[in-house]
TrEMBL record:
InterPro entries: JAMM/MPN+_dom, MPN, STAMBP/STALP-like_MPN. GO terms for cellular component: endosome; membrane. This is AMSH-like ubiquitin thioesterase 2 isoform X2. Gene3D superfamilies: Cytidine Deaminase, domain 2. It comes from Cicer arietinum. Its cofactor is Zn(2+). SMART domains: JAB_MPN. Residues 40-56 have a biased composition (Low complexity). Keywords: Hydrolase, Metal-binding, Metalloprotease, Protease, Ubl conjugation pathway, Zinc.
């Protein structure tokens, strides 16, 4: 059995979804004519304000305007318990741009400062069935500020080593200065440091000798009001 989902102006044929599919988010009618906008990091800055050398030579990525809001709704029960929640972002490539069309919430083990996906083969199955790239991941910091911990940096390295455009979204609902951030490891400095780091758990990373950052804001991710996405909650 097959069904069709329209992303932007494209009609994409997909195989029958697993029973874990909980919904397909549609864009509200009053947002249909909105144009593509630069991502606002939550502190008033946008992509152009945060132009990063780590994002200059990678392809653009479009995400739905509803992504962060809907993810926080799915994470609310954990957030209220001071537990992190994580999700994986799947995207398809067309005409040199990656369109994020799938949010997967895997089975996971959570604590107040960490979140570990389990049964990852279920995630790979969904991505493979839909020929999607694992273009990034999203997770909450329920009671911490909006930043990338050393554990987060190692997770980001595993994504970015596969897909250069891969990015991390950190949602910190209790951070009054910046509740949301999109980050990537700098290239080559941050990537080299994480590649050569044998440490596990929480630990400091040395700064690059040239004074550059280990990670920085993304400047290649845009919110697209006409982009819909599927949500798979596997928990």
């Amino acid at each position: 059995m097959e069904f069709h989902i329209s992303f932007l102006d494209h009609k994409v044929t997909k195989s029958s979804p697993s029973p874990a599919l909980c919904c397909v988010e549609a864009v509200p009618q009053d947002e249909q004519n909105s144009h593509i906008t630069a991502f606002n990091s939550g502190d008033g800055s946008t992509n152009s304000d945060n132009e990063s050398s780590s994002s200059k030579n990678v392809r653009d990525v479009h995400i739905s305007m509803r992504l962060m809001e809907d993810f926080l709704d799915l994470a609310k029960e954990n957030t209220d318990k001071d537990l992190e929640t994580c999700g994986i972002l799947g995207a398809f490539l067309e005409n040199g741009t990656l369109y994020m069309t799938t949010l997967i919430i895997p089975k996971q083990e959570s604590a107040s400062n960490s979140c570990q996906a389990t049964n990852e083969e279920e995630v790979f199955t969904i991505l493979n069935e839909r020929s999607l790239y694992p273009v990034g991941w999203i997770h909450t910091h329920p009671s911490q500020s909006c930043f990338m911990s050393s554990v987060d940096l190692h997770t980001q390295y595993s994504y970015q080593a596969m897909i250069p455009e891969a990015f991390a979204i950190v949602m910190a609902p209790n951070d009054t200065s910046r509740s949301c951030g999109l980050f990537r490891l700098t290239e080559p400095d941050g990537m080299n440091i994480l590649r050569d780091c044998p440490e596990k758990g929480f630990h400091p990373h040395k700064e690059p000798d040239n004074g550059n950052l280990v990670y920085d804001h993304c400047s290649n991710v845009y919110k697209n009001a006409n982009l819909r996405f599927e949500i798979f909650d596997l928990r």
